[in-house]
Amino acid sequence: MKKLFLSFIALLSIALFSACESKDSVSGKAEGTYMTHRTTNMVGLPPQIPFTPIEENVSVNIKAATDTHVNITIPTMSYVFGGQNMVIPDFTISNIPVLDAGDEGVVIVNHEFKENVDGKTVTGTLKAEIEPDGDLDMEVTFKYGTMPFALKQEYESLHD
């Protein structure tokens, strides 16, 4: 009985450790929380409709999903449009493939996504580069729910 118990513990330990993503994996190289400066613009907005770009500092969380895929959480944003306060809650883009670019870091190439956020569909594209020194450059273009225009967000790492 004792051998069976010890065998079970050993098997469980192996399963747990192999399930954890390694910093040596492509997704492990991308994983982290990045302090960024975000600029948000509306795409395709007619010139007669004014929109002032939104500039703010936010953190972006990237978590490994598998050795070659990550989940990226886009932070909440609020803005005024047409005299109304608009809020888009934070949402996670899941199962994004990441590519190892060698000495250039890690890249995400034009990933199309569709997520459900608070009963609304969010569709868009994401591309990003994470340099070996930890700098994140990312662009996300998306529509939230029935928005008539897309939002384009550009993220750049902040430096101390």
Please explain how this structure is put together.
There is one protein chain. With 160 residues, the chain is mainly beta. The protein has a single domain (23-157), classed as Lipocalin, CATH 2.40.128. Helix content is 14%, strand content 55%. The protein has helices at residues 2-19, 26-30, and strands at residues 32-43, 54-64, 69-74, 77-81, 84-88, 91-97, 99-100, 106-117, 120-130, 136-144, 150-157.
Helix proportion of residues, in percent?
10-25%
**How many separate structural domains?**
1
SSE pattern: HHEEEEEEEEEEE
The count of strands amounts to: 11
Overall outline: globular
CATH structural class: Mainly Beta
Radius of gyration in whole Å, from Cα? 20 Å
Order of strands side by side in the largest beta sheet?
Answer: 6-3-2-1-11-10-9-8-7
Summed up, the helix count is 2
Average pLDDT number: 86
The largest pleated sheet is described as: 9 strands, antiparallel
CATH topology: Lipocalin
Which band does the percent of strand residues land in? Answer: over 45%
Q: Report the end-to-end length measured between terminal Cα atoms.
A: 58 Å
**What CATH architecture do you see?**
Beta Barrel
The oligomeric status of these chains comes to single chain
List keywords for this structure.
160 residues; mainly beta; two-stranded antiparallel sheet; 11 strands; disordered N terminus
